Amino acid sequence: xxxxxLPLSYLIGSVTFIIGLKMLSHPDSARKGxxxxxxGMTIAILATIFLYTDENGNKLGNYAWIFGGLVIGTIVGTLxxxxxxxxxxxxxxxxxxxxxxxxxxLISIIEFKHHTSIxxxxxxxxxxxxxxxxxxxxxxTIIVGMVIGSVSFAGxxxxxxxxxxxxxxxxxxxxxxxxxxxLGIITALTVYVVAVRPDATVALFYAILVISLLYGVLFxxxxxxxxxxxxxxxxxxxxxxAAAFGGFLYNNPVMLTxxxxxxxxxxxxxxxxxxxxxxxxxxxxxxxxxGAKASGGGGAKEQGNYKEISLNDTAVLMxxxxxxxxxxxYGLAVAQAQHVCHELEKILQEKGVExxxxxxxxAGRMPGHMNVLLAEADVPYEKLLExxxxxDQMSSTSVVMILGANDVVNPAAKEDPSSPIYGMPILEVExxxxxxxxxxxxxxxxxxxxxxxxxxxxxxxxxxxxxKVLQDLVSELKQV
Amino acid sequence: xxxxxxLFADPATYRLLTIVILSIFLGIEVISRVPSVLHTxxxxxxxxxxxxxxxxxxxxxxxxxxxxxxxLILGFLSVVLGTLNVVGGFVVTDRMLEMFDKKKKKKTT
Lengths: 480, 109
Description:
Chain A is an alpha/beta fold. Chain A is built from 19 helices and 6 strands. In chain A, 61% of the residues lie in helices and 6% in strands. The longest helix of chain A is centred in the first third of the chain and has 29 residues, at 135-163. The relative contact order of chain A is 0.09. Chain B folds into 2 domains: 1-33; 35-109. Chain B has 5 helices and no strands. Chain B has helices at 2-9, 11-30, 39-49, 54-63, 69-108. Classes of the chains: A alpha/beta (480), B mainly alpha (109). At the A-B interface, helix 1, helix 2, helix 3, helix 4 and helix 9 of A face helix 1, helix 2, helix 3, helix 4 and helix 5 of B.
């Protein structure tokens, strides 16, 4: 009876992952879906600890180590996830993704060490009995799992560093060729290590490890920060595939289904994200903003003068407007200004001004970033307009207030075919009567592109940190 | 070629390959239409699910000889990292989705 419990738990695990993912893709059931998957995961983990037996019927040992690791991981993971600011969510996801990749990488390293330590004459027998696998497949599985895991690990750490500003964009000429070359070396070495007896090529195995890590770093380095969500999603599916290779290694169905599901669903999600930004995946990976910056910036047209507007004038303008549309961007998130923003909205409404928010699908650092942020400040759901609706209402809007958004309102996306963001749908703020842009300085946005909007006649600039400016604006409005 | 014949000759491997192919299609079907607000939570949820790699870490850890310190330490590390991925992933996802819940409540009241 007990021997069916483990496969049964794994089956339950696989099913909950499928149901969980399905529910996660619908707004009403998303939170439950996450919970369902978490329960399935817990069942699969506990079943493995207590029920797993190897071919000879031996149970797992080292319980103290296992539970020690689980407890530490749970405490640190929960604290980190609970404490992280809403604004830092994206880098947190990337960091956790990297941990998963590193986990897959370590498993492969240990398994490789384990299988190459078996004496040559016992190799066939021991290898076969331990894992029920032919040695060739075994080592391919181990090495490919390690390569993908370490690329995902290194890449995620770089993505994490980029998102929190610790690492700057970096690219050099011919980087893509170097990357391809590295990939070629990894493939060649893998074939060689598997073809020749692996225990004679231990050093090469570690060479593959190092090159894979290097590849992960170089793969993410040149990609512009605005494209980071896409890259994280891609690395996410990589880790899924790495987990699936672990499933192959242990003949473990739940690792396999979980890993492959995330691998394929993650790939589709990556493509969906690209579509939301109207960019192709190839464009994101190869035509990086880093390279486009030089040509786009160099060919910049003569910029006119911009005009500034005082706080007082802004307050008056808004107070007597019939309708104000607020367009939030990453600047709002950085300044943690979502609560003040909600206050501004309430004060305007008391004065009889209609207020709405125009949300660009990729405003902020991740799709849905702004929705989450504003929801945290209790901004009512129906005030958040999606891009199409916001654009429809733009011509009846008297004042558009842009808070720390830049690329998503850049007219170059519509007008300048040489711009790297050309073709991306934008919020067409110029259809409104007045445009007020709050920024900290005239520096270009995250994509590194000049924004001509700031020099247009309708636009007035209101410089300063979003939170500070909004606080002052609220107190000004109280006096109007 | 020999390698591929071997792959298909082994029923266990063949079974796993079938699971892989079917799971790929399933993964695509399951999330073919997602509103863009859910992209981030979905990615985060998927991120937690691939933490299933923790099971491999547990097996490695449980099978390590008690005098093989390198394997013990690396295994321990991989259990910690895997747990971080699973627990952190699910908790972060839940926090994101909690915001959506709040929104919905606002809507009904």
